[in-house]
Each structure stands twice: as structure tokens, then as C-alpha cells.
Amino acid sequence: MCPPNKKEKSPKKVSHASFAALLEENRIFKPTPAFRAQAHIKSEEIYRQANKDPLKFWETQAKALAWFKTWKKTLIWKPPFAQWFVGGKLNASYNCLDRHIVGSNRNKAALIWEGEPGDSRTLTYFDLYREVNQLANAMKSLRIKKGDRVAIYLPLIPEAVICMLACARIGAVHTVVFGGFSADALKDRINDASAQLLITADGGYRRGTVVALKAAVDDAIKQCPTIKNVIVVKRTGKDMAMQPGRDLWYHELMAKAAAFCEPEKMDAEDLLFILYTSGTTGKPKGIIHTTGGYMTGVTFTTKYVFDLKPEDIFWCTADVGWVTGHSYITYGPLANAATVVIYEGTPDWPKRDRFWKIIEKYGVTIFYTAPTAIRTFMKWGTQWPDQCDLTSLRLLGSVGEPINPEAWIWYYHTIGRDRCPIVDTWWQTETGSILISPLPGVSALKPGSATKPLPGIEAKVVNEEGREITVGGGYLVLTRPWPSMLRGIYGDPERFQKTYFAKWGGQIYFTGDGAKKDKDGYFWLLGRVDDIMLVAGHNISTMEVESSLVDHPAVAEAAVVGIADEIKGQAIGAFVTLKEGQKPDKTVEEVLKDHVVHKIGPIARPQKIIFTHDLPKTRSGKIMRRLLRDVAEGRALGDVTTLADASVVEALKEKYGEEE
Ligand code: WT7
């Protein structure tokens, strides 16, 4: 890598020296001898091997896949553009299906699906193979071919996975749009991708009611000139309009489709999918991933991060609308011939024990969810998991945000019953697969830290000038290309370069996250650098203050924002949800402020605490701090289209006004 370009300065300065001390977390959890004994990876040797020769390491991982033709060159790196396994040919659906149905996995459960109303379906590898082949043929009959874009807008039903794999089979590029998104958001994504086909359903179930997906589709499509056909899956049987000539029933197409469809021989660098990520500002970016490198990254990480074994029942609670659902519901687990659980609905339907009931019912062994869900479960109380048999679990995972030590310990104790290692996995839509995470048979865990970069990955914390910080806080960067990295932003190479590679000389990937490295080389993620506050000359991450608030027994969840302040630059505002049964009042407010001072220092004392029943979150559970800043600073609200529940901010605005 070239030395960073010192002239390049970003407007936002994060100085490493003044980072507030991260909550001192000195509990260490080593792998138990029993876990280590059975783990795929038992020694740190793999890190040394990968470091010695990263390309050779990735070649070994790529060989876990079936290739129609081996690659000629492992990597061509012309920053910011990488090509991996150049000249290699493969097919993602072949890797997830065909190679499993010739042996003992043929009749193994591939997907165990639970609908929200309590209905359930199990598809074996052979079942899934047959459905994918038929749908691939049905799409071909609608003249969809290699390179065409297909939008998928479905509830979490088996057809969502079938559609992704059917696209992959014929080389069509899928773009999955989360079923909770509005007609407007759907329209923007379809148009940006110029999709020709849309696959949707007559509806889906969420918290007991039917979500009218098709109505949103009809609304969106009016302004989507590229869409020629809409395939509709019958999920609810509720009445809705079908437009003759354009709309086709999934089951009718399938009934006519031939049983086998030859998998397209895709180049390693052919597009596999586009996935839109909203980021915190601006128009959504269509992140593009290609076939060979992406499949290598997800196949490797699924097996080793989750220590996946043939007998595991793997449940990642994400929706296929997020990258987590692409990498750890569909491609990673199925490439490894795993049994995957998917659930259509919400965790509180019909009661707050639904997740634990599902674990009990199917004997889930690996459970992968998000900190926001874990904090919600904490708020609901232990009586729900305590009534269920969770003894099948052997490994837990966390993804999406920093997990505060308090939530980590709760998860470890209440769900894992002090037996299961937790893998806190850091990655992004852009990275395609997990990059910073423990290897559960090897790593000593520190609650709240994603530990260290995986073998083959080089991550560093750097200062404004791009110089490495070995102990302390700064920007998280990736200094070596990796196979599953994004290949660009769809239709916008300039934005790709500017967003990720411009800050330090063009070769270093900037994650947008702040992080701190401790003396043992562990990484502590601090959230997006946009969420780092500058209070009286000190950098304080919103996540640290949130973590200290949640550390107090009365608090269920907290969101912290910097509020413009004439004297301090920024003052700290906190939005706090208390645990059930706790009453918000002035005393609690003072107690919490003191608690933060005690945990971090007087500099981090919140100026104001607003109590709220709920926080504004995106559909994927990330707190929208931008909106809270708008509320706190009395501005009109910015873009709210990705908000899960719009009433939450309205209520907050009213409340904030009252308290001014
Ligand atoms: C951002 C990426 C990765 C799939 C789901 C989110 C944050 C993600 C962690 C973690 C701390 C995390 C980062 C990252 N993040 N995982 N384990 N610890 N922060 O994908 O929507 O692209 O978001 O999520 O800020 O940059 P995404």
C-alpha cells in the first residue's frame, strides 16, 4: 500500500488522543476446553499462515467452492477496483444446491420456515433445488437472461431464498428490497437498477396483520418504466388486483416450468447482486457484489466464525432485505449445506417468547441476532426465555452495532446459560462478509469487543493523517483488498472512489467507523464517525455514553446525540427508554447523569435526558441519530423513508418541545 496522502483532510476531525476512555471491561471469557476440543479451528496458527501469504490463504478458501473452471490469477488490484479469481467460472446456485443433492445432503433440511401465524414448511436440499430450477426456467420464459436485474420484494418466506438462487442460477442480478420499505423506496431502487422483473407476494404477516405488499407494488410500478412483469407469490390468499398481461401467479408459472435449468457459467467477477444501503445521508447506494470473491468470503466465514457443523441448526434472525440475510441466511449457510431456520414475523407475536419458542421447537444450535433485539429482550425481562428450553444452543452471534458489555453479559448468561461463546461480528454491506470477529475455538472474548480481524484481513486504526494508532482511538480502515469486498456503487464509480477510497491516498478503504484498539490488539467499535461528538475539545463517541447509560439497571435502551452548544461546541443529549416498571422523573435523570460521570468522566455528563417509550429506528434496527439531532436542535425532520415507525419521532418532537 502507498503511504497515505497527507494533504487530504476531511472536514470532520477526530483526534485520537482525546477519545474518552471506553468503559473498562476487563472480564475475559476463554473458550471452554470442551468447545475448543470440537472446534474447526483450535489454534492461532491460521492467523500466521494467512498473514504470511494472504493470497494463498484466500486461494485455499476459494477451493472450498465448486468451480467449472479454475481462475488464472488470484487478484488484480487497481485501487479502488479489485478483481478476484480472475478467469474462474462458477455458479452460486450450483454451489448452494447441485453439489449437495448428489450425496447424503440430498434429503437434509435446507430451510425450516416458520410463518408468523404458526404455519411451517421444511424444504430439503432436493426440494429447494427443484423449486429453484423451476423458477429459473419460469424467469427465462419471461425473457430474463444473464445480466438483467430482478427486484425481489417479499416477506420472509422460502420463496425469498428461492428467488435469489433462481436469479443466481441464470445469471440475473437480484436486488432484494426489504418488504417493510414503502412504495417510494421500492420505486427508487427499481429505477436505479433498471429492473425488468419484480417478484412480490399478495402480502405477508407482521404482528398479526397482513402487510399489503402488492398494493405498494402497484403504487410503485406506475413510475417504473423498466418493469415488464410482476410475479406474485400467494402467501395470504387475501384479495388484491392482478393486472392482466403484467402480473403472473408464481404457482401457475411453476406448474408449467421444466424441472431442470442448466446453471449459467458465471465469471468470478460477474455481478451476483445489488443491494441498496441507505447510509445516514444521501440517496441510497447500490452496493455491488460479484460471484467468486463474495461466495469465497461468505462460505469461509459461515463455516469458521460460527464453527458450523453438519448437524447444526442455524438461525440468523435478519431479513433477506439486508446483507446479513444475503450472506448468512442464503449464500454462506447453503454453500456449506447447513440447515437454516427462517421466521416471517416479529419476536413479540403472539407473545414475547416467540424467538425462544422457535429455538426450542427446532432445536436451534447457532443463534445470530442484533444488539437492538438483545436490548429489547432485556427490557421485556428474563421470564420469557426462562420458560423455554434453550439447551440446544451452543453458539451465539451479534451483528449490526456495537454490543454494549451489559447486553453482552445478559445475552451470555440469560440466553447462552453461561455455556455458549458469543461471536460479535463486525462487517458492512460493503464488506460482504464478516471481517472482524472472534474465532470461537481460539479467541478469548472481551464483552463489547469484536476482538480481532479474521485471518487474511488487515484492519487498522489510524489518525487523521492516516498514521496507524497501535493503542488508542481513531478511524477504522482496511488496508488490504479482500475477496468479498464491494466492487463498486451501481452506476456511480466516482461516488464509490470518493466514499471509500479518497481519504488517504486512494488505496486504503475507509469504513466510516471509529474504533479503538487496546493494549492486547483488540478492536472496540465506536460507531459511525458521524456519531462522534466533540464536547469541549474532547471526542466522545455516542456509543460510549449510550453504553454507560444502558449499564445502569433502570435503563433498557439509550440514544445519544451531540447538540450544538455555543460554549462547548457540542453538548450531550440523551434519549432514554427505561426498563418496564421504572418511572421516569427528575431523580432518575440525576442518577443517570451521575452514573455516566462515574463511568466515563465529567466531560461526558449529559446536559439533558429525555425519557421515551421508543427510539426512532431503521427497519434493520439501527437508531437514526440524525433524526434525534433534528429533534434536539429543533429542525424540520430530514428523510424519514427508512424509519420503521414514524410516530416515534413525532411523539418525541412533542415531548421535546414540552421540556424545553
Ligand atoms: C455498519 C454496517 C453487517 C451487517 C449488518 C449491518 C455497524 C455492524 C457491528 C459490530 C459494531 C457494527 C458498523 C458498520 N456494525 N456490525 N459487530 N460492532 N458495529 O450492515 O447496514 O451495512 O451497517 O454497522 O457501524 O459500519 P450495514
List keywords for this structure.
single chain; 660 residues; alpha/beta; GMP Synthetase, Chain A, domain 3; 7-stranded mixed beta sheet; 5-stranded parallel beta sheet; binds 5'-O-[(S)-butoxy(hydroxy)phosphoryl]adenosine
Compile the SSE list and pairings.
Blueprint: H1 33-38, H2 45-52, H3 54-62, E1 73-78, E2 81-86, E3 89-90, H4 92-98, E4 109-114, E5 120-124, H5 125-141, E6 149-153, H6 158-170, E7 173-176, H7 183-193, E8 197-201, E9 204-206, E10 209-211, H8 213-221, E11 229-233, E12 247-249, H9 250-256, E13 266-267, E14 271-277, E15 285-290, H10 291-305, E16 313-316, H11 323-335, E17 339-343, H12 354-362, E18 366-369, H13 371-380, H14 383-386, E19 395-399, H15 405-415, E20 422-425, E21 459-462, E22 472-478, E23 488-489, H16 493-501, E24 509-517, E25 523-528, E26 532-535, E27 538-541, H17 542-550, E28 555-565, E29 569-578, H18 586-599, E30 608-611, H19 625-632, H20 647-659
Parallel strand pairs: 4-17, 6-7, 6-8, 8-11, 11-12, 16-17, 16-18, 18-19, 19-20, 29-30
Antiparallel strand pairs: 1-2, 3-13, 4-5, 9-10, 14-15, 15-23, 21-22, 22-24, 24-25, 26-27, 28-29
The structure holds 5'-O-[(S)-butoxy(hydroxy)phosphoryl]adenosine (WT7).
Q: What spatial form do the alpha-carbon principal axes imply?
A: globular
- Low-pLDDT parts are 1-23
CATH class bucket of the domain at 532-659: Alpha Beta
| Number of beta strands | 30
Mean pLDDT: 92
Sheet with the most strands?
A: 7 strands, mixed
- The strand line-up of the biggest sheet is 5-4-17-16-18-19-20
Structural class: alpha/beta
Q: What is the CATH topology descriptor of the domain at 532-659?
A: GMP Synthetase, Chain A, domain 3
N-to-C CA distance: 51 Å
Tell me the β content: 15-25%
Which homologous superfamily in CATH is the superfamily of the domain at 532-659?
ANL, C-terminal domain
By CATH, the architecture of the domain at 532-659 is named 2-Layer Sandwich
Give the cofactors and ligands: 5'-O-[(S)-butoxy(hydroxy)phosphoryl]adenosine
Radius of gyration: 24 Å
Number of helices: 20
Helix content: 25-40%
